[in-house]
Amino acid sequence: MQKRWVQGVLSLSVLGLALTGCGAPKEQGGAATDNKAADKGAPTQLVISTWGFSEDFFRKEIYEPFEKEHNVKIVLEIGNNAERLNKVKQGSSNVDLMYLSDYYAQQAIEAGLFEKIDRSRITNLNNIYDVAKAPLGEDYGPAYTIGQLGIAYNPKALGGKEIKSWADLWSPELAKKLTMPNITATSGPMIVDAASLVAGSSTFNEDQAFAKLKELNKSVVKYYGQTSEYVNMLAQGEIAAGPIMEMYVKDLKAASPDVKFVTPTEGAYAVMNTINVVKGSKNKQLAEDFINWHLSKEAQEKSAKAHIDSPVNKTLTLTPEEAQGITYGADVVAKLRKLDMKFVNQNLKKWIDRFNKEVTQ
After folding, report:
1. What is the pLDDT of residues 54-95, one digit of tens each?
2. Disulfide-capable partner of 81 in 13, 88, 104, 177 (CB 3.0 to 4.6 Å)?
3. 3-state secondary structure string, 113-176?
4. What is the pLDDT of residues 177-193, one digit of tens each?
5. pLDDT category, 39, cuts 50, 70, 90?
């Protein structure tokens, strides 16, 4: 069975609309608990589920300005995608707002865990890339950042060989010098699609993809699940190349300054992190106000210049130095390949089984 499951990123609108301010309009008609807290002068508690990276930056530049503007106290629930999603599924969490990669956010949508958002309240949606506005459907939250999965490598460790395409991962020079994402990692399904591309299929072909991955297995030192594993292997000279998200290249360069990052000629893969309101939240409008704030030019520019997140707000302008190491610009975003997450989740269990039985055995 063949199915086209990768779509080119949608064309981006040329003109951005003027921003109406850093945040959304003041909350109107919010939950009774919110208004009661405001009347007493006590801040409303907003619980946000997130990863916890760069927490000091987010506290100072993203959370604190919103807290002061809206009389809010933000409480964080920290963990990886799977851990946090499981807590919400089990009902052991009082989360209002949830950050997840699109891969996991689709699972949450299918489990009925998210509220439908009121897009009329999130005015900064007008100022972000079209592909980020509704990556998982109009009823659900936007992507607040878009990164890319490409290939990093150390030219010196490969005898000067250049890597330009996904097909280069199959080159003999990379034998026993390669790391690849585990199939269960967020980028695992992207590698399955890349293997189908290398096999020469214009539409996704599962059998050809797994045949190519089996062929590649002999060159793989280890399938990594965490970026720290990649960094350590590179620093110790165990590997010389492998796919990785661009946002982590700065960590690789700290371990090995000669490392280069390339966008493969066939296209890098869009890595989108989304933000959604959790079902049953008593602070839905306040959560929507926060989404609007995180999409604002001010918040997006702070994250981009600090090299924390790649921006989706197209009204900000970065210098080449500021844009170094992040995914920036309409022309770059337009060329990214985007997976159909519904299709991924429908097939993931089968792919994991095939990967374990056919590729790594």
Report:
1. 999 999 999 999 999 999 999 999 999 999 999 999 988 899
2. 104
3. CECCCCHHHCHHHHHECHHHHCCCCCCCCCEEEEEEEEEEECCHHHCCCCCCCHHHHHCHHHCC
4. 999 999 998 899 999 99
5. low
Q: Which long-range contacts (CB under 8 A, 24 or more apart) does 247-250 make?
A: 247/147, 247/307, 247/309, 247/310, 247/325, 247/326, 247/327, 249/152, 249/325, 250/307, 250/325
- State both tokens at 331: 């022309």
- Tokens 């003041």 — which residue? 26
Residue 205 C-alpha from the chain's centroid: 25
Exposed e or buried b per residue across 288-306, where buried means at least 16 C-beta atoms within 10 angstroms of its C-beta: bbbbbbbbbbbbbbbbbbe
For residues 148-166, average pLDDT? 95
> What would the two tokens of residue 350 be?
């089968």
pTM over 0.90, yes/no: no
Lookup: tokens for 291: 């989404």
C-alpha distances out from residue 112 to 81, 83, 85, 140, Å:
17, 17, 12, 11
